[in-house]
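Q: Here's a chain of 275 amino acids. Please give me its 3D structure as C-alpha cells.
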Amino acid sequence: MINNKLISNYQHGFMPNRCTTTQLIYTMEKWYKSLLEKSNTDVIYIDYKKAFDSVPIDFLLNKLYSYGIRGKIHRWIKNFLKDRTFKVKIGNDYSDEHSISSGVPQGTVIGPLLFIIYINDVVTRIGQNVSIAMFADDIKLTFSFRNESECHALQNAVNNLVDWNTIWGLNVSLDKTVIFHIGNKNPKFNYYVNNNELPKADIVKDLGVITNNKLTFEEHINHVRNISMLRSVQLLRNIKSTNPKIWGNYFKMYVLPLLEYASPVWNPSLKKSIK
C-alpha cells in the first residue's frame, strides 16, 4: 500500500518519514498564509468515539480486497481479525469469555496500518475547497475564506464526513469535536454535526502542541517551560551522583524530549517568549 502510494498524502500517522510535526507544519503553513492574506480560517477538529475498536471487520476486509490485498495475505489478516475473544481478570478470578465482533487490535504492528487503510478514502468526501489533515484517527478540516457566504463549504464537508461515517460504522464524539476560529475579524460561524452545534475553543491542544487563535504559542511555551523545570527539580532531588555524564544522560532522557517535541512548529520568535 505504501510503496504503491495508495495511502492518502494527507495521512501523517504511522507513515514513513512522517510524524505529528510534519502534520502540524502542513496545517500551520496554511493558517499563517491565511493570516498574511488577511483571510479568516475555520478549523474543525474531528474526534472519533473509540475509532480503532469500532471498525467493522467485514467492511475492513472488503476494503483490503478492493485495494488488491488478496489471496494468502487476505486470508491471514482475516484469521488475525476474526474469532478473537477476551475475558477480564480481577485478582485470581476470571470473567466469562466474550467474542470481539469489531475493531483492529491496538498494540500490534499491523493494527494501525489496517486502520489508516480503512479510513483512507474519507478524503474523497471532503471537497476541493476544504483542506484535510490526518494523524491516524485525528482529523482536521481547514477552510479559509473572506466572504461569509463561502462558509457553507466547510459545513458541507462536515456533512459529507458524517455521511461517510454512517456508511462505514464510525461515530463522531460530539463532546471532543471542536471549532477553532483564526483571524481578528473572524465572524465565528456555528457548525453542526447531525443538528448538534459544535463547541468552540480559542485554545486547542493539537497533537500535543497548545495553540491559540493568534498562533503565538505562548501557552505552549509556558507549559513546556514549567513541566521541564519541574522535571529538572525532580532529577536534582532524586539523583545523588556528581558525575556530569550521568546528569547529561538523565537530562537527555527526561527533559530534552519535552523541549524538542515539535519544536520546529512552536519555536519561539518573540523576545518575551525566548526569555
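Q: Can you summarize the key feature?
A: The chain has two domains: 20-204, 219-274.
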